[in-house]
Design goal:
Strand content: 5-15%
Order of helices and strands: HEEEHHHHH
Number of helices: 6
Largest sheet: 3 strands, antiparallel
Helix content: 55-70%
Radius of gyration: 25 Å
Shape: rod-shaped
Strand order of the largest sheet: 1-2-3
Length: 128
């Protein structure tokens, strides 16, 4: 069989097909997307989308926008964590002086703040 018979193109649809065995299968590929490293918040978002927002997840995946979306969520969550943690620490009097004088107390208060901010991130960014 010659090379032309193995590949055909539907000009109206703009799709090419390749002969595999007895069937012509469409030559489909996901669009190229810029790759970003994804942190914990991006992975949490991906897991949430896969399990609870499947259509949205599939749309992001097939459009090539999933990695970009997860990166944006990751950056937003990290920025939120940093900003809100500092604000809460200042408001609650968790200072460097407390850290030097009562280190275990400071660790406990900062961990409490971090846990509250994580809950806010889950509700406002990851699960929205």
């Amino acid at each position: 069989m010659n090379e032309l018979a193995k590949h055909i193109t539907d000009e109206n649809a703009g799709i090419s097909y390749t002969l595999v065995g007895d069937y012509y299968l469409p030559d489909l590929a996901l669009p190229e997307e810029e790759h970003f490293e994804i942190g914990i918040y991006g992975r949490m978002r991906k897991n949430y989308l896969k399990n609870h927002r499947r259509v949205f997840y599939a749309n992001l995946l097939t459009s090539g926008e999933l990695n970009k979306h997860l990166h944006e969520i990751d950056v937003a969550a990290y920025n939120f964590m940093e900003l809100v943690s500092k604000q809460m620490a200042k408001q609650e009097g968790v200072t460097e002086q407390l850290k030097t004088e009562y280190q275990m107390l400071w660790i406990g208060k900062m961990e409490n703040i971090r846990n509250r901010v994580m809950e806010m991130i889950r509700e406002e960014i990851i699960y929205s």
